[in-house]
C-alpha cells in the first residue's frame, strides 16, 4: 500500500529587537564597562532606569564574570548608537540575559549620563596549587566543570604575569617547569587582566609553576 504523509510548514515570528548578546564596553577588562545589547546587528546602550541589581547579576554571569561590584549610570561613558527600548525583568538566577523577560518602557528617552555602567568582580577561575600559598604553585583553570592544568608555549613569562595579576598576587618572581601533566594551552601578550582574555589553544601543552611576589613562602619554595 502507498502511504502519503503531509508536511506542515510552520513559520515562527521573532521579535526584531530581541537581544542576541550582551557586552561590557570601555571598561578596564572583560568584566567592566557600559552595558550594551545587540539587536538587528547593531549595539544599543541600556538606560540606568531600566536596569537593576538582578539584571546586573545575570549580565555578569552571562559574560563569564563574578558577582556585580558597582552599578551606576554614566560610569563608562555614553553609547554612540541607539538606546535599548525595553526594560529587563530578570529574577537574578538566569544564566543568560536572553532568558530574562522584558517589558515596554514607559518613557522611550534616556537622558545623557544615564547609560548604565557595570563592574563585575573577576571570576575565581584560576588557582595555583601545591605551592604552600595562593600565590605560588602549578597553574590550574576551572573549565567545563572541573579544574584543569594550564599549559603554555615557550618561556611562559607572559602567561605567568597575567596569572599573578589576576590573582592579585603582584608580579612574577619566577616560572618553573610544572608536573608532567599536559594542559589546555594559552598564549598571552602579558598585558591582559585575566587568562580569559588570552588566546586559547586546543593543543595539550606542558603545565608550569608560577611564584608571584605576593607569596610569603618564596624562600621555602626555592629550597625544596
Automatic annotation (TrEMBL):
SMART domains, per the entry: SR (SM00202)
SUPFAM superfamilies reported in the protein's UniProt record: SRCR-like (SSF56487)
Gene3D superfamilies membership: SRCR-like domain
All copies of domain SRCR, residue ranges: 22-121, 126-224
The keyword Membrane is annotated on this UniProt entry: no
Disulfide pattern: 90-100, 188-198
GO cellular component: membrane
Keywords for this protein: Disulfide bond, Glycoprotein, Repeat, Signal
Name of the protein this chain belongs to: SRCR domain-containing protein
Organism: Oncorhynchus kisutch
Source lineage: Eukaryota, Metazoa, Chordata, Craniata, Vertebrata
Amino acid at each position: 500500500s502507498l502511504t502519503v504523509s503531509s508536511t506542515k510548514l510552520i513559520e515562527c515570528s521573532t521579535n526584531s529587537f530581541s537581544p542576541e548578546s550582551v557586552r561590557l564596553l570601555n571598561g578596564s577588562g572583560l568584566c567592566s564597562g557600559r552595558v550594551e545589547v545587540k539587536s538587528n546587528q547593531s549595539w544599543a546602550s541600556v538606560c540606568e532606569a531600566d536596569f537593576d541589581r538582578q539584571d546586573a547579576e545575570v549580565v555578569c554571569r552571562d559574560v563569564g564574570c563574578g558577582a556585580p561590584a558597582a552599578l551606576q549610570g554614566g560610569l563608562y561613558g555614553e553609547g554612540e548608537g541607539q538606546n535599548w527600548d525595553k526594560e529587563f525583568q530578570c529574577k537574578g538566577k538566569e544564566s543568560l540575559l536572553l532568558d530574562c523577560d522584558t517589558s515596554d518602557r514607559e518613557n522611550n528617552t534616556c537622558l545623557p549620563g544615564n547609560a548604565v555602567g557595570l563592574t563585575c568582580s573577576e571570576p575565581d577561575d584560576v588557582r595555583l596549587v601545591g605551592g604552600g600559598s595562593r600565590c605560588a604553585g602549578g597553574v590550574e583553570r576551572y573549565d567545563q566543570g572541573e579544574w584543569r592544568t594550564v599549559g603554555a608555549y615557550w618561556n611562559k613569562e607572559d602567561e605567568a604575569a597575567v596569572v599573578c595579576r589576576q590573582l592579585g598576587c603582584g608580579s612574577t618572581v619566577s616560572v618553573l617547569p610544572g608536573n608532567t601533566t599536559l594542559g589546555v594551552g594559552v598564549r598571552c601578550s602579558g598585558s591582559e587582566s585575566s587568562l580569559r582574555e588570552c588566546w586559547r589553544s586546543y593543543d595539550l601543552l606542558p603545565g608550569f609553576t608560577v611564584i608571584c611576589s605576593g607569596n610569603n613562602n618564596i624562600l621555602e619554595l626555592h629550597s625544596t
